[in-house]
Specification:
OB fold (Dihydrolipoamide Acetyltransferase, E2P), 5-stranded mixed barrel, alpha/beta, 4 helices, about 35% strand
Length: about 170
């Protein structure tokens, strides 16, 4: 092995974070919100997506107070913020300073179009719905008794009519 510098994982992550923050500064990204979560702390976590990629995003409570709308999954937005690296996971993300709605995202629009088409075909009609089949019997082999015993206990609690037996 040569005498090249050896980094600890933490040191390398810190270097990469510094590079990202110095190189990019403030950037504006357009994408569709997905997986939006608002935590009791007031912080928003979500993913920005387009056809080919995704980017993690966070909006701190202090910036969220300035929003004039509630971010929702499927919204097409423009996010201005700083790129950084969340060192613990080695995942880069944008820390949003502002978010502007642009409209419904293309993925959301396609989803809604498909849902409407399926609805027009009557695929969501109550008379077409079939009840989910429930098991009436479970048989087990002796390989993993503890797992099987737990499975049967849970199944009996959920489906009292269930019959069970063990195979030799």
């Amino acid at each position: 092995m040569d005498e090249a510098r050896v980094y600890s994982v933490s040191d390398l992550q810190r270097e990469v974070r510094g590079f990202l923050e110095r190189r990019w500064g403030s950037v504006t990204v357009e994408g569709e919100i997905s997986g939006h979560r608002l935590y009791p702390s007031g912080h928003h976590y979500f993913t920005l997506k387009d056809e080919g990629a995704q980017l993690s995003a966070v909006l701190w409570r202090s910036a969220a107070r300035r929003l004039r709308f509630d971010p929702e999954d499927g919204m097409l937005v423009r996010v201005r913020g700083a790129l950084t690296l969340y060192e613990v996971r080695g995942q880069y993300q944008i820390v949003a300073e502002t978010i502007e709605p642009v409209g419904a995202g293309p993925l959301q629009i396609r989803f809604e179009q498909m849902r409407r088409r399926l609805e027009e075909e009557g695929l969501f009609a109550a008379e077409r719905k079939v009840p989910c089949p429930l098991p009436l019997r479970i048989a087990s082999s002796p390989a993993r008794r503890a797992v099987v015993r737990d499975l049967i206990q849970v199944a009996r609690r959920r489906w009292p009519i269930l019959a069970s037996s063990s195979l030799p």
